[in-house]
């Protein structure tokens, strides 16, 4: 009987996918298809949980099949990240007039990412104080105790590793290993290697133009093929979002969210405030925030449902180039760097809020200026090297809490609402990287403002 119910649930998913395909054939816009998939995924997930209950055999079996569509889509995105980043950055550098332009580009991208993370830490602190968050208000159960033990174990493996040592992990020692994505810093390592290759080609062009031209033809051919693959994969976005959202809603422990509602609310207030700050920055630089918002919403929708900054890189790059008018080099560097450093949500707001919550448990006044200044500076500095240890928000929290002398295990108290909060954090991370790319391109005079302001300019690969 369980098998029959699972089969019925699979048929329902296939039917909804058929609806999305029909919408595509009717040339419904990509944004509408993505949000239709998201909305139907929420409804489907809620119905599945209401009928079968969290943890039931039928629900577990159903979601296992749904993962083929959802997680399968994320895997397709991940598999194209390295070739896309590598060939795009090499090609962009070859097209630069001067190598010093590369330094300015990377400097502005990193500067904006770190600066906004510093602001995000202040926003996180403010939200935690406004809602009077305190770790002592949360009752620890078995899941929380297990999570605390896991965090302590993780800290033991990285204890003693300084921020400079974590940053050193950015530098590749085996590019073939990094092309497999084995290390948490693999994307940055690939970026650095690609930059070196691009600079080398510029040098060869001066001494042996014929050889450089031959290499450029190879790169352009490879680029055309990679972009076609990206096009094919991105067309699957509405289906991936549908399955991911259905799985997330169906498996969410809503009782835990209700119990920790104040912490979830405080987190999303901070995330929304920081998102508004991003839009204000866009406006300060003479660009229309609403135009920006309309063009990035599909990318943020996927980031929200997938909880994967790295998996969103292909959509991020495409949206920046084709919808926002960001130049090729800046789009690739900002999307790649933004997935592994200066993450406003995971490395800014989250660890800062945790520190304010946990400080009172060990007798530290979280309102003192000394504590706040120290926390903001540590958060900003740590956000630059957090990718060196891998694990996103968890390790960002470990680094900040250990640097502040606060108990790490208490971070495990939010395990029941971790997924819900992480969705918003990931969307903010991705938006931060897109803002850094857009502003950098504008500052360097490379932004195609005509394309930015063109309401019809959307991501080409997803326009049909």
What are the defining features of this structure?
464 residues; mainly alpha; 0% strand; globular
Based on DSSP secondary structure assignment, what is the total number of beta strands? 0
Strand residue content: under 5%
Helix content: over 70%
**What string gives the helices and strands in order?**
HHHHHHHHHHHHHHHHHHHH
Rg estimate, integer Å = 22 Å
Question: How confident is the prediction overall: mean pLDDT?
Answer: 84
Oligomer: single chain
Low-confidence residue ranges: 460-464
Overall shape: globular
Distance between the termini: 41 Å
**Helix count, DSSP H or I runs of 4 or more residues:** 20
**What profile does the largest beta sheet have?**
none
Quickly give the structural class. mainly alpha
What is the strand and helix layout of this fold?
Blueprint lengths: L1 H24 L4 H23 L4 H38 L5 H31 L11 H17 L4 H6 L6 H4 L7 H22 L1 H26 L2 H15 L2 H6 L1 H24 L4 H18 L6 H10 L5 H11 L5 H15 L10 H17 L7 H11 L14 H26 L5 H5 L11
Helix pairs in contact: 1-2, 1-3, 2-10, 2-13, 3-8, 3-9, 3-10, 3-15, 4-12, 4-15, 4-16, 4-17, 4-19, 8-9, 10-13, 12-13, 12-16, 12-19, 13-19, 14-15, 14-19, 15-19, 16-17, 16-18, 16-19, 17-18
């Amino acid at each position: 009987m369980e098998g029959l119910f699972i089969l019925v649930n699979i048929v329902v998913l296939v039917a909804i996918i058929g609806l999305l395909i029909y919408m595509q054939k009717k040339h419904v816009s990509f944004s509408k298809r993505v949000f239709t998939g998201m909305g139907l995924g929420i409804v489907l997930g809620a119905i599945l949980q209401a009928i079968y209950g969290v943890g039931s055999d039928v629900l577990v079996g159903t979601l296992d099949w749904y993962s083929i569509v959802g997680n399968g889509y994320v895997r397709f995105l991940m598999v194209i990240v390295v070739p896309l980043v590598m060939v795009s950055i090499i090609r962009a550098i070859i097209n630069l007039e001067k190598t010093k332009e590369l330094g300015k580009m990377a400097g502005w991208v990193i500067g904006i990412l770190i600066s906004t993370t510093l602001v995000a830490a202040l926003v996180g602190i403010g939200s935690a104080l406004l809602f009077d968050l305190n770790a002592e208000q949360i009752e620890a159960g078995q899941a929380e105790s297990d999570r605390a033990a896991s965090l302590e174990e993780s800290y033991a493996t990285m204890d003693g590793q300084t921020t400079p040592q974590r940053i050193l992990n950015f530098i590749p020692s085996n590019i073939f290993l990094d092309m497999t994505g084995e290390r948490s810093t693999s994307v940055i390592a690939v970026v650095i290697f690609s930059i070196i290759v691009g600079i080398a080609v510029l040098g060869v062009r001066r001494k042996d133009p014929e050889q450089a031209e031959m290499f450029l033809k190879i790169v352009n051919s490879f680029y055309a093929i990679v972009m076609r693959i990206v096009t094919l994969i991105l067309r699957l976005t509405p289906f991936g979002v549908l399955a991911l959202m259905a799985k997330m809603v169906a498996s969410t422990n809503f009782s835990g969210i209700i119990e920790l509602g104040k912490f979830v609310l405080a987190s999303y207030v901070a995330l929304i405030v920081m998102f508004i700050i991003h839009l204000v920055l866009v406006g300060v630089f003479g660009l229309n925030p609403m135009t920006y918002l309309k063009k990035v919403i599909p990318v943020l929708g996927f980031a929200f449902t997938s909880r994967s900054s790295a998996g969103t890189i292909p959509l991020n790059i495409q949206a920046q180039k084709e919808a926002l008018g960001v130049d090729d080099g800046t789009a690739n560097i900002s999307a790649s760097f933004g997935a592994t450093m200066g993450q406003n949500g995971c490395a800014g707001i989250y660890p800062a809020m945790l520190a304010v919550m946990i400080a009172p448990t060990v007798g530290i006044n979280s309102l003192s200026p000394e504590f706040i200044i120290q926390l903001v500076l540590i958060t900003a500095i740590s956000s630059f090297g957090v990718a060196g240890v891998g694990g996103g928000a968890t390790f960002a929290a470990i680094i900040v809490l250990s640097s502040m002398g606060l108990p790490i295990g208490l971070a495990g108290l939010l395990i029941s609402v971790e997924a819900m909060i992480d969705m918003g954090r990931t969307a903010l991370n991705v938006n931060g990287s897109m803002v850094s790319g857009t502003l950098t391109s504008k500052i360097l005079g490379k932004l195609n403002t005509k394309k930015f302001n063109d309401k019809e300019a959307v991501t080409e690969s997803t326009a049909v």
